[in-house]
Design goal:
- The protein has 389 residues and is of the alpha/beta class.
- It folds into two domains: 176 residues, 3-Layer(bba) Sandwich (FAD/NAD(P)-binding domain); 152 residues, D-Amino Acid Oxidase, Chain A, domain 2, CATH 3.30.9.10.
- Helices cover 30% and strands 28% of the residues.
- The strands form three sheets. Strands 1, 2, 8, 9, 10, 11, 17 and 18 form an eight-stranded mixed beta sheet that branches.
- β9 and β10 form a beta hairpin.
- α1 packs parallel to α6, α1 packs parallel to α9 and α2 packs across α9.
- The longest helix is centred in the last third of the chain and has 18 residues.
- The radius of gyration is 21 Å and the shape is globular.
- It starts with a strand and ends in a 13-residue tail after the last helix.
Amino acid sequence: MAQSYDAIVVGAGINGASTAYHLRLLGAGRVLLLERGGVAAGGTGKSAAVVRQNYSTPLMTRLARKSIEKFRAMRQELGQDGGFEQVGYFMVLAADHVAGQVANVAMQRSLGVDVHMMEDAEIDARLPWLNREGVAGISYEVDGGCADPIRTTEAYVSAFERLGGEVRLKTPVRALTRAGDRITGVLLDEGSLAAGTVVNAGGPWAHFLADSANLELPLRTVREQDTVWEGRPNRPLPTGVISLATDGLYIRPLGQRRFIVGRGFPKEYVDVDPYNYKETADDAIVSLILERLEYRIPSFAGAKLIDSYAALYDVTPDWYPFIGPRRGLAGYCDMNGGSGHGFKVGPAFGEELARWIVTGQVEPDFAGLSHDRIVEGRLFTQTFGGNRG
């Protein structure tokens, strides 16, 4: 007879780890977290781990604000912190972006976000290194910042285990098991496991798991490239997280004059096989990033390249994640399609999905993230914008 669990979560990235932890916290019973590699071994581990509330919809702003609160309280709640540093978040805008961002800022402020459009004197004081040619406006989010994606995910996994959860690493899930309109568990190399609910948090690999049970899951897997630079000493450099909408770049400080710099929207998205893709960055992309970086922040001239690499996004048709159960299918929940934004809202995603599973209660706006929206043709029309998370 197969081992039985109240819930099985597949994938130990930030979304799977947060969901597993909150399931145990809310009394879900026997919960198992399965991972084909190690903790944060997929997209999470290579995330730039920017934490911000700059979104264009109240739903994502609300969830991002909740996650900020959870990042702040992580040591108290989980017993260890995730390296969260509130260094501020700046959005640098060209003229055609300003009106939209002014509206976003007004919406965000109505939800309690500490954000404002900067005046010239503040820009001069906070961003003296910025080449302002072509810059029409800048917004500043006080509570934004960045975290350590691996430490954050490990904190959730460790807290989950302390609550009595079970973790199995290096344990690939080969398939979902299904009986009619119910997902009944998972198939491992050593046999099957039964579950009241299976949460598919497989990220770029989630659609393979869905395919095994004949479930539609329209996810693209695209290759994303990041670089790490070290600025020269005795030069003014950013201290906060910067999104350069003017140049299609984002900058995340690492300390010791080092920064992750990656491409932001708009850019080309290249679909790849998550089991077989080039994990180093292209020379042309590295050169383009440095050219744009030196232009916008001249003090980066002569910066030293420390690293460059490629990671993966799992992208939905409307760039909003699939989260929650599906109408007409019992025993299954999606938790995938972060579209490059999963890290910063992962803590809130996990809490709200766990509550939905355990109590059957869900906020109406969060319920709109269900995959049911694809079937019903009610896709989100506003894109996230911003940078990789």
